[in-house]
Design brief:
With 166 residues, the chain is mostly helical. The protein has one domain: dinb family like domain (Four Helix Bundle (Hemerythrin (Met), subunit A)). 63% of the residues lie in helices and 3% in strands. Strands 1-2 form a two-stranded antiparallel sheet.
Length: 166
């Protein structure tokens, strides 16, 4: 197995989890917040997809799917096009409202772009420095693993909220 195949499998598991969570979801479930400052499922899925899109497309040197494919207009959120949800206030979290179809459409489009990029990387690419703003500088491999950790964590949070709701 090649490294890129491990990444494809791992990111593919996020896609599968998002599809499972959103199957049969309605607005009440997607906007449910178990506490006044808790994140909603809609925000968590939007945010994990925004991070996936932002971080991986940056590594790939490509424009984000969010912008390039017009998802920012379709979602019509009151944020800048570069917003990913990082540092959002409780009020901003509440503003993320979307149908399961909209969330899945953006997620799948992003996953498709990520898979296309990952299919072309080599093991040597994983050592390329992609962010010198850290000490030590961040390699492509480290950034891809970081995104995996974030997306799986947020997917687990969304699953937990689903359980609380039901």
């Amino acid at each position: 197995m090649q490294s890129y195949e491990i990444f494809l499998d791992t990111y593919g598991r996020v896609r599968e989890g998002v599809h499972r969570l959103l199957a049969g979801a309605d607005e009440a479930l997607l906007t449910y917040r178990p506490g006044p400052d808790a994140n909603s499922i809609a925000w968590l899925i939007w945010h994990l997809t925004r991070i996936l899109d932002d971080h991986v497309m940056d590594i790939a040197g490509r424009e984000q799917v969010w912008i390039a494919d017009g998802w920012s207009e379709r979602f019509d959120l009151p944020f800048t096009d570069t917003a990913t949800g990082y540092g959002h206030t409780s009020e901003e979290v509440a503003q993320v409202r979307a149908t399961p179809e909209l969330l899945l459409g953006y997620h799948d489009a992003t996953q498709d772009a990520v898979a296309e990029f990952l299919s072309g990387i080599t093991d040597a690419d994983l050592d390329r420095i992609v962010d010198e703003g850290w000490d030590p500088p961040v390699t492509m491999g480290v950034r891809l693993v970081s995104v995996i950790g974030d997306t799986h964590q947020h997917l687990g949070q969304a699953a937990y909220i689903t359980g609380l709701y039901r």
